[in-house]
Amino acid sequence: MISRRGFIGTSAVALAGAGVVGRAEAAAIPEAPSMAAATMQPPLAPANGQDYQPVVTLNGWTLPWRDNGEWKEFHLVAEPVVREMAPGMKAHLWGYNGQSPGPTIEAVEGDKVRIFVSNRLPEHTTIHWHGMRVPNGMDGVGGLTQPHIEPGKTFVYEFVLKKSGTFMYHPHADEMVQMAMGMMGLFIVHPRDPKFQRVDRDFAFIMASYDIDPGSYLPRVMTMTEFNLWAWNSRVFPGIDPLVVRRGDRVRVRVGNLTMTNHPIHMHGHDFEVTCTDGGWVPASARRPEATTDVPVGALRAFEFVADEPGDWAIHCHKAHHTMNSMGHTVKTFVGARMRDLTGPIKKIVPNYMAMGSRGMAEMGAMEMPMPENTLPMMTGFGQYGPMEMGGMFSVVKVREGLAVGDCKDPGDYRHPEGTVAHEVQAAAAEPPRRSDNSSSRHPAAEVTVIKPGSTTHSHH
Ligand SMILES: [Cu+2]
Fold this sequence. Notes:
Elements lengths: L11 H4 L40 E2 L8 E3 L2 E16 L2 E8 L8 E4 L3 E8 L8 E3 L23 E7 L4 E6 L4 H6 L4 E6 L10 E10 L18 E4 L10 E4 L3 E8 L5 E5 L5 E5 L2 E2 L10 E4 L3 E8 L4 E7 L21 H11 L30 E4 L2 E5 L3 E7 L25 E3 L20 E3 L10
Parallel strand pairs: 1-11, 3-6, 5-10, 11-14, 13-23
Antiparallel strand pairs: 2-3, 3-4, 6-8, 7-9, 9-10, 11-12, 14-19, 15-18, 15-20, 16-17, 16-19, 20-23, 21-22, 24-25
The protein binds copper (II) ion.
Copper (II) ion binds next to loops.
């Protein structure tokens, strides 16, 4: 996949706008590797004596580069792509090098990077390097700092990576459409000093939202708020890779947000500190323990923790609607309604009518309803104890003993030690606690009868 073929030196100026779009047709432009699957690729190890912990892009990959003298050369191709968002559902998006999001770009502070961008879209585009310190003419704002890259053309961006951190790239041309279609990617700049901010595992994803009608493939680009697919790396649960870590590892999770709303990202079982934003590293004195961190629109947050609690720990956006798939927002609320009385009359008018939701909507997590093709259930995913009733922005941090360094393969369900799983007890309902007139106790004990399994005794009232 990685192109290491020889290079015939040509000045970048001569290449700019050369109009060569092919993958390696021109000797002067590095091959543009392409990815056909939404499968997590192994981290791309550093080369040339550089030392850093490469990132793991959930359901993604890192773009190989070519060395050319002092420069690291990358080739991005903006193009229509087909992205599997979860098994059973594909979206027709725009992206880079075969997928949305585009490949993660990784390099090292101080590196000189030369990034070729070919446009295979039906309209013009540019790339903006979000959060990075670049010369103004490399900032990628179409019309303001550069002419647009017309379809069929190739432009080149050149800059020195002045600071390390967590950044992203996206078009700054017809942004509303191009980002609604999935054009985005992560740009990770590792510190020059390998000991600075070192972690054992480093995960990265970027949040996007799509509005794809059930049974269709194309996002509605005019949607502003009512999206129905909330994605990490253009994947939705149960299609999002787990974050697999070895017990004791120091772990970083880098999260970008290119949706139209904020996402409070919550992780179970541990506390963490935000150590990096798209502005740079957070000084230790400004960090605070958190279990949820809000990632604003157009921002990145990287947080770190020591994975010292083994288990399967949920990680998700805490906006409950963002852990659903294919949300219909016009569904009526029937919680508490006596549907038994209503179903008969309604069925006379709507013969296929199904009463749902009068006891909550959890029943949707287990049922299999006929659905249009290419549509995901709203609440889905099964764990070892049953349906999880989740979708969208949800995954699992899997902390396990004794994994090999860098082993990110899904280890399966966590095996809970004997006696450490919440379980049913048979408890008789007690009278609600009441203040007793002749008691001085402020907290009179409730009368609870715990019944041993197998007992036939019932509560005494
Ligand atoms: Cu959210």
